[in-house]
């Protein structure tokens, strides 16, 4: 029954004796009494066939009862993330013998991690991040031989990382960032041969970089930043051949070892001295490189697509190579040594944003982008000598929605655009839309719902060819209310771009239905509360359905016209 807009408390369900799967996520359900035990969970202990419980994204604001220890042995997955669960995790949780997945992240949990969780030998995933848990990480977890994902980040955990974690032979992702952990990184960590992600950042860890990293054959992501680690980065780090993300920023490291295959390297705010190793020229896939706030000297390595090459590609950034100027910098067209034509954004130093895929030194900052010969969507919508037909506009809307879906959902942390508008949507030679100028939103208060809000404004602008800042809009009427009134009165022809009305011999009905559906979707994305806005996957699905119907209706008209002609 999720996602929906159900409210109130969950009733007693003990009579549903054959219930196997309970899906109540993404509603507005509340607990029986604020900050009291969630009694409906006790009733579920009578459902002896229950395998999955989904309660995430509600507003329970209550406590987990000790009776959850009475759940049937058939229970395998318990989802109760981001739903206001408070208090401690009952020690009785250790009685759910066959539990595989425990998802309690994004709540208000306090107290200790129960040692009894070590009895859940079938656990493969533990998600307790973004809570207020404290105390030590219990060594009892070391007995969970099937554990693949352990997320304890963003809590208040203290003490050392248990050395016995080296016994978690099935562990794939170990994320302990943003706690108060101390002491050394256990040297036997490198025995975890299947570890892909290790994030120990933002803690109080000290001591040297552990030796033996060459045993990490499949690790791709390693973050030890914001600790007090010191010494040298071992020279055999290049033997971790799958490593593409390495962050050691804000430590006390002195030297950099050999590196290969990296896409992300951040060793800023350490005590590195001397010259930047020439071996960095071999990092042909490097997209993010930060060595700021060290004691390095000399020239930046000139191999690959370095700043030296960008000067040559743009004829020393001549005015004739300049494409334009924006609020944060200027764009130049350039041709790299392999013949690839690129757009290069040089940032104004007084207004920098975080970027990926840039090169810089003290006086120069630039971002290399794919060149978009057809310019921005803003230009195509608001220039008098350019025109986009309805199908082109619909395709562009789908392209942008797909880009947002990738940014919001593909990564461990969402990438939030924060400034989605037609001028940041660029069109390639095939009129395919690409989204640029996005920001990384992992740790701030920004939300993907803001992008959904901006997308609906863009969708309204695509259909009406009117900017929200148009002079006709003010305190009494907005673009939203203008379109809303036309939908209620069935007069959308008065608000859509006049260029889309078409000829009388064309399929007026199909075009009107398509535009009406697009405007309705835009209004649905426009709800005032961010929690009520549909997610980007639903937007993509709806737009693709609108396109399929529009094309099918057009094909019918075309077939009828051919038959009439015959």
Key descriptive features of the protein:
single chain, 566 residues, alpha/beta, Phosphorylase Kinase, domain 1, 3 domains, 12-stranded parallel sheet, 6-stranded parallel sheet, flat
Question: Could you characterize what this model shows?
Answer:
20% of the residues lie in helices and 20% in strands. By secondary structure, the protein is an alpha/beta fold. A 12-stranded parallel beta sheet has the order 2-4-5-7-9-11-13-15-17-19-21-23, with no helix packed on it. The chain is flat and about 70 Å long. The two termini are 53 Å apart. Mean pLDDT is 83; it is low at 352-356, 440-445 and 562-566.
Name the CATH superfamily assignment of the largest domain. Answer: Transferase(Phosphotransferase) domain 1
Largest sheet: 12 strands, parallel
The CATH topology of the largest domain: Transferase(Phosphotransferase), domain 1
Shape from CA axes? Answer: flat
Strand arrangement across the biggest beta sheet: 2-4-5-7-9-11-13-15-17-19-21-23
Helical proportion?
10-25%
Q: Specify the number of helices.
A: 8
Instruction: Please write the CATH class name of the largest domain.
Output: Mainly Alpha
Domain Protein kinase: 317-551
Pfam families: LRR_1, LRR_8, PK_Tyr_Ser-Thr
GO molecular function: ATP binding; protein serine/threonine kinase activity
Organism: Handroanthus impetiginosus
